[in-house]
Amino acid sequence: MKTVQSMIFFLLITQTLLAQMTAFNIYPINYKTTVNNRIRILDAKELEFHHPKISELSGLAYKKGYLYALSDQGYLAIFKLTLHNDKITKLTLVHKYVLRKKNAVLHSHDSEGLAFKGKDLLISFERKQRVDLYSTKGVKISKMKINKALRDQKAYESKNKGLEGVAYNKKYGIVTAPERPLKNVDAKFHRLYSRFGIYKFKAKGSITGLEFIDKENILVLLRQFDYFPLKRVTSLVKVDLSKCTKEHICKSELLAAFSSDKGWNIDNFEGVTRVGKNRYLMVSDDNDNIFQKTLLVLFEIRR
């Protein structure tokens, strides 16, 4: 009897750790293809988490079958991710860690961007703008050095327009960006910052996520929200950091723009990560709001 009870208990616990995934149609009515410019949508799922509660996912990183998801609320969730035939088939919670410094829990949340640096994780923050290095168990290892222009807290448009995204590779090191251009620069251009470099490109909206495509090219996730008329746009832009003018304006390409006024059923996308050859996931932050959704979208960048 105890064995049967143990098995039932195990199955119940396992079930609560599985994300409830529902197929989600983000396409406009009568849309005949999943291709939008250079992006092909492969799958989209709406996620619900009941135990433990998981919300406000704003950063993603992927490694060896595990998806690391960062919450604005200051915790790191780790999932076993199963992809099959270009579909998201299973997402199982493995661990959930509160971000902390040794044994002390961080009181300032606003954790936004996530990227691997070797075996550890880079996390970017807003309000207290910085990039820190954490273990995969959510323990702070050290504060990272970033571009001098980003160290002045008063230079940001506002405290809430901070370092939304972070990416890393060996050539460029840590690359991060404020959500909106800094006060003292030309607002016509967004800027990506490495430790000693600045890379400018023109794009509408606010930067919410970064991920390297290859050694030279970086994928930028942007959102745009207009009230009059009411419209939400999610854009994906590729920026070539190796092809820039003397004025630091880099070659860029708009890969796709998904706009609600064109019928796209989108939400507040804030995190993006590479999960395979030309395959990426992006996630939406539900703002812990019953009127918004946590959406996980698998897409391909077409050559």
What does this structure look like?
There is one protein chain. By secondary structure, the protein is mainly β. It has one domain (20-301): Neuraminidase (6 Propeller). The protein contains one helix and 24 strands. The strands form seven sheets. Strands 1, 2, 3, 22, 23 and 24 form a six-stranded antiparallel sheet that branches. Strands 4-5-6-7 form a four-stranded antiparallel sheet, with no helix packed on it. A four-stranded antiparallel sheet has the order 10-11-12-13, with no helix packed on it. A hairpin with a 4-residue loop joins strand 11 and strand 12. The termini are far apart.
SSE diagram, text form:
Layout: H1 2-17, E1 20-23, E2 35-36, E3 39-48, E4 57-63, E5 66-71, E6 75-84, E7 87-98, E8 100-101, E9 104-105, E10 111-117, E11 120-125, E12 130-134, E13 140-143, E14 163-169, E15 173-178, E16 190-193, E17 198-201, E18 206-212, E19 217-227, E20 230-244, E21 250-259, E22 269-276, E23 279-284, E24 294-301
Radius of gyration over all CA atoms, rounded = 19 Å
Architecture, according to CATH?
6 Propeller
Provide the succession of SSEs: HEEEEEEEEEEEEEEEEEEEEEEEE
Distance separating the two termini: 58 Å
What name is given to the CATH topology?
Answer: Neuraminidase
* Strand portion: over 45%
Overall morphology: globular
Briefly note the structural class of the backbone.
mainly beta
What is the helix fraction of residues, given as a range?
Answer: under 10%
Q: Spans of 5+ residues with little confidence (pLDDT < 50)? A: 4-15
Biggest sheet architecture? 6 strands, antiparallel
